[in-house]
Amino acid sequence: MFKYIRDLHDLNILIYTVNALAARMDSAKIVTLLLMISFFRGGLSRCDIGWVNENQSCYYFSRFSTNFYTALSFCKSVGGKLIEIDSRFEWNMIKRHVQGRRFPDFYIGLTDLFSEGDWQKATTLGRQTFLQWGNGQPDNAGNNQHCVQVYVSAMKFDDLWCHYDRHFICEK
Ligand SMILES: [Ca+2]
Ligand SMILES: [Ca+2]
Question: What global pTM score does this model have?
């Protein structure tokens, strides 16, 4: 799938570099190099390549857009969840990243698919109390909007038709 193309590209560069160096280094140096790489990845960043480390969590900013259900299952398939914004602190951190990288409108793990008007966390379930609705939202347009996007022009929540394609953020 397209999900790892850039990550694989990064990994391939790493492997290529190690191979190139290995041709000119003895095994002790190679071991040292590998230890340094693992320290770098484990010590400075707890996250996989392509994920951002913030406050003991890792965040993945999608490089493609898709519908809500695919976003939800994609995040699960990589061992995380579609982002659930639980606090003002996390929200401010996400805002900073979204604005910094000019990230487009995106899905978050918030839905009223279970019960109209009852906004639940999509993966861990339970009612969400941190809400940032935009003006006039949620409006359940067409009596059929049950998934939540953040529209970045105002950094506000909007309920949306779940089949619409949007970027998304995973966390783990
Ligand atoms: Ca709804
Ligand atoms: Ca709406």
Answer: 0.75
